[in-house]
Write a structure and sequence with these properties.
Structural class: mainly alpha
Strand content: under 5%
Number of domains: 1
Shape: globular
Distance between the termini: 24 Å
Order of helices and strands: HHHHHHHHHHHHHH
Radius of gyration: 21 Å
Helix content: over 70%
């Protein structure tokens, strides 16, 4: 039972980080956005992932050197493309508004990030989990759509009351923004596709003595090399274009720096812990864990929004949003149940057979026992 519950527990834990890291983005000023983002990306995509990976993956450099070049290249490429999707998200908001952009991007990122790894799984058609995975994805998309609709209606009410809201453009501008949002959503799912594409890197890490769940860290550092190249490169271009290097020395910048670091730690904490859970779920991990992560993060971020007053004075949209959250919870339960359904082992194999050199002595224990075993 622990082999089902513990991976899901890790993904649920990761969703709290994913749903809260965005709070740091409320504290960008007095830094220029590009200066804040460069600090954030350096912590989230470079420093924290590599430090964590060095700590839990034995002989990390050797693992990466002995990993298949194709997996390394694909992982970094998908990370780079994900970075482009993140930039397009910000552009789309100016055309179609935050709520519609967020709904489109979140829905497509969950769908594409799960669907692409799903079709790549061998003999997936015979897996008893498949109908539940598909059903959970459909329910998740419905829930995201309801929450996005509620956000749009909330924005309309608040805009009518005089609150400044980035509105939805009309005509050609709207169609352009919609195309950008759709492209952003597809590219945003490639972060998880990159993780799935680096499974062979995890195999090398396991053979080197890494615990099964910690093989995810060796995979993430590869994917995030590409992601960091895109994000840091874009920030540097803006720093040069806007001549905003001077904001690094602006007075009163400590709070902005602090939140850039905190947001970076939370962001990769989400990916790192999610990756550990997905690694324990084997090949279906990126398929099941990814939509659960995004769905729970959406629930948590909206709960925080209610707490800080972003839904105040909009009872109708709030009720609609809560209905969407209920659908998301049902979707997550369906996806979680699918993780308990195991495919029959292939002929000639025994259930529970492990590969040679697999250092998984801690897998399948209780969460507390596994944590104790981690460092001994």
């Amino acid at each position: 039972m622990n082999e089902v519950f513990f991976p899901l527990l890790l993904v649920v834990f990761a969703s709290f980080f994913q749903g809260t890291f965005g709070l740091g983005m409320k504290y960008v000023k007095p830094l220029a956005w590009e200066a804040w983002w460069l600090v954030h990306a350096t912590v989230a995509m470079l420093l924290f992932p590599w430090v964590w990976a060095f700590f839990v993956v034995p002989d990390l450099w050797s693992v990466l050197a002995n990993s298949p070049a194709e997996a390394v290249g694909q992982g970094a490429l998908y990370g780079f493309l994900w970075g482009i999707g993140g930039i397009m998200f910000g552009v789309s908001v100016r055309y179609v508004g935050m709520s519609l952009t967020y709904g489109i991007v979140m829905g497509l990122a969950a769908l594409m990030g799960s669907l692409i790894p799903l079709v790549g799984i061998e003999n997936i058609g015979s897996n008893p989990a498949l109908p539940y995975v598909i059903g959970g994805m459909v329910a998740l998309l419905i829930g995201v759509a309801i929450v996005a609709y509620a956000g749009i209606k909330r924005d309309e009410i608040q805009s009518a009351e005089g609150k400044e809201i980035q509105g939805i453009q009309q005509g050609t501008a709207f169609r352009i923004g919609l195309a950008i949002a759709i492209t952003s959503g597809v590219l945003s799912g490639l972060l998880n596709v990159g993780f799935a594409a680096t499974e062979s890197i995890g195999d090398v890490a396991r053979e080197a003595g890494s615990l099964e769940r910690n093989t995810a860290l060796a995979r993430w550092v590869v994917v995030l090399v590409g992601a960091y190249a895109m994000n840091a490169g874009y920030a540097l271009i803006l720093l040069i274009k806007n001549r905003s290097f001077g904001t690094f020395k602006v007075q009163g910048g400590f709070v902005a720096y602090k939140w850039a670091v905190i947001a970076g730690l939370l962001w990769f904490a989400a990916l790192g812990v999610y990756g550990q859970g997905a690694a324990l779920m084997k090949s279906l991990g990126p398929v099941i864990g990814w939509p659960i992560l995004l769905g729970l993060a959406l629930i948590i971020s909206n709960a925080l929004a209610v707490w800080i007053g972003e839904w105040k004075g909009t009872p109708g949209p709030l009720k609609t949003m809560l209905g969407g959250v209920a659908v998301l919870i049902c979707a997550i339960c369906i996806l979680g149940f699918s993780n308990s359904l195991k495919a029959e082992p292939a002929e000639g194999q025994e259930a529970g057979l492990t590969t040679p050199g697999r250092a998984a002595v801690c897998d399948g224990q209780t969460a507390w026992s596994a944590l104790k075993c981690e460092y001994h």
